[in-house]
Amino acid sequence: MKGFDPIQLTKATEKVVVEGNRRKYARLARPLRFYGGITSATEVGCNLRCKFCFSDTPVRKPQTTGKFYTPKEVFNALQKGAIKHGHKLISASASEGTLGRQHLLELLELVDQSDLVFVLETNGITIGHDKDFATELSRFNNLHVRLSVKGANEEEYSILTGANPESYKLQYKGIENLVNAKVSVNVCLMASFSDEKGIETVKTRLQKIHPGLLKALEIEHITLFPKVLQRLTKHKLLPNKVRQSGKIVQLEGVRV
Ligand code: SF4
Is the CB of 96 under 6 A from ligand 1? Predict the structure, then answer.
């Protein structure tokens, strides 16, 4: 089989980054400019290995990165940071947000008792694999899920993430499960390596799940940070469009 199974990698990574209700984080509560300002924790551990990922050691070296924190410790730090910076939104980013389900659910319970909103950043794989996950998320009011689809088709996804092509569909299943469970969700498509035809195919796929998904669809492009460029060059993968100083720039790249 070409590529790894991301569900198996989920289980293997959780053994490293989850301990009871504690999860590993590299950093708690830093202000980010996204969504007009958000306080975010840097979590550790992912079930994909995207070659364009800006997050380095939290994804690739989970054993030696970060420390374990309880949901209460994470929430307290995020709340403190949000108050300091006047943010209403909090999140955890730089890895996969759904690893350590017990930790996440306990964290969301704390968020629900506050006036903050948690943005769950995910690639959707785990939620696509288990419909009950979406049902469990549906009981939270102060939650929004931002689900990032990697690539415009199975092959592109597999080349970019290292996972087997069959698992591409789990991302769409994740969206469908969230929509059916009435969880607030928006989709972004990582399209730096995709052509227009591929992007249209994704739009058609999303429309079939729910036409409303297209209204809030974000087309995302990578930033060529030095480590990202180094990794992409090693794999002979260059994007055709990147984000540079806030603008989307067309490159003379080699598309996958
Ligand atoms: S899913 Fe996200 S955090 Fe994980 S490797 Fe891909 S880009 Fe990085």
Answer: yes
